[in-house]
């Protein structure tokens, strides 16, 4: 995969610094899109099972990141269990944007303002590469799931449904 070495978003800069290969894919984002992730899959001509969304939740009061296929939803109970907690709730828009440094619809699991415990849905491992936001709407990065897990310090577990 190509590697972006200068400039870009915090996600692409972090990947380049870590020496992790990735490919950028840009598409025309429609601000009226109802689902950013499904829009990316459609615009890039991809099976939605290969495109993953980055969601922030609160598990027992601490922010966590969950990366799940855009074709499904986050299972909050499974997320809490995976990260050693008992209760999970979705983070609000403002809280997610403030914690990550990205805008909703462009939140990347890589290069966030602060590192958060991260879980990647195990279905990511079914693919050679997956697509996640590169840090802005209309820009996705293609990356090997193992590289995403490594660079984010994530665990993998079944957290999507």
What is this entry, summarized?
The chain has helices at residues 10-18, 36-44, 76-82, 93-100, 145-152; strands at 23-26, 52-59, 62-69, 88-90, 118-121, 130-136, 139-143, 155-157.
Describe the protein's topology:
Elements: H1 10-18, E1 23-26, H2 36-44, E2 52-59, E3 62-69, H3 76-82, E4 88-90, H4 93-100, E5 118-121, E6 130-136, E7 139-143, H5 145-152, E8 155-157
Count of individual helical segments: 5
- What is the C-alpha radius of gyration, as a whole number of Å? 14 Å
Low-confidence stretches: 1-7
Judged by helices, strands and strand pairing, the structural class is alpha/beta
The residue-averaged pLDDT reads 91
> Main beta sheet, described?
5 strands, mixed
How much of the polypeptide forms β-strand, as a percent range?
25-35%
| Overall form | globular
β-strand number? 8
Strand order of the largest sheet: 4-2-3-5-8
Order of helices and strands: HEHEEHEHEEEHE
Through-space gap between termini: 30 Å
Give a verbal description of the structure.
By secondary structure, the protein is of the alpha/beta class. Helices cover 25% and strands 26% of the residues. The chain is built from five helices and eight strands, in the order αβαββαβαβββαβ. It has helices at 10-18, 36-44, 76-82, 93-100, 145-152; strands spanning 23-26, 52-59, 62-69, 88-90, 118-121, 130-136, 139-143, 155-157. A five-stranded mixed β-sheet has the order 4-2-3-5-8. Strands 1-7-6 form a three-stranded antiparallel β-sheet, sandwiched between helices.
